[in-house]
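Hi R.,

Here's the chain you asked about this morning:
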Amino acid sequence: MESKIETRGLHLSWNGKKVLSNINVQFPNNKVTALIGPSGCGKTTLLKSINRMHDGSPGLSIEGEILLEGKNIYAKDADVVGIRRKVGMVFQKPNPFPKSIYDNVVYGLRIGGENNKKKLDEVAEESLRHSALWDEVHNRLNTLALELSGGQQQRLCIARTIAVSPEVILMDEPCSALDPISTEKVERLILKLKEQYTIIIVTHNMQQAQRVADFTGFMYLGEMIEFGPTTDIFNNPKETLTANYVSGNFG
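And the predicted structure, written out as tokens:
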């Protein structure tokens, strides 16, 4: 199965303290991959390393490669802005800008130099439709985004992410701050978005991983213990550590 993102011998440490150790994994195209494991196991660190969010962190050391379309994103000549345009990020807590709904969606296009109003309007509508938010906000696009509910804000952040046409979407616990109804809407959205994007999601919710993920990687103490189809990870894990975690014996 083809993969747009791949890690090879990835090691990451801060001030000599190991955080990730020898991560080798391929994230299949147009699939949802869930990263699971106990708190502090390296899930979010791995996720953020895929679009270089750790750049500039004091004491950071990275070895190995993260390949995006076959090119190492940590190569000296890598285009970091281009990488972040191709690899979007949705955070645990909705973080809309203190701007209108419309201005939030088109923000990335504008800072990229796009000023054509017709183009911006088209992208805003398309992105809001793809994030299942258009019907709820189309008649109040000039409303301050912070006035939306938490679930709407998270879907707005997803719309803002896809407006710049990424190829990969990273999601760090995107439903942890949401109520069950909003969580269901975001999960349905994730399943729809994988038709166009490769999605990697960090989650502590085992049921959520089983609902949305095609593949799952179980991490522990900075290592990728097991990676495979989600049904195998939860129903027929190969590693004892994985079996103990997904059965709730620790975590």
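The longest helix spans residues 117-130.

Let me know if you need anything else.
M.
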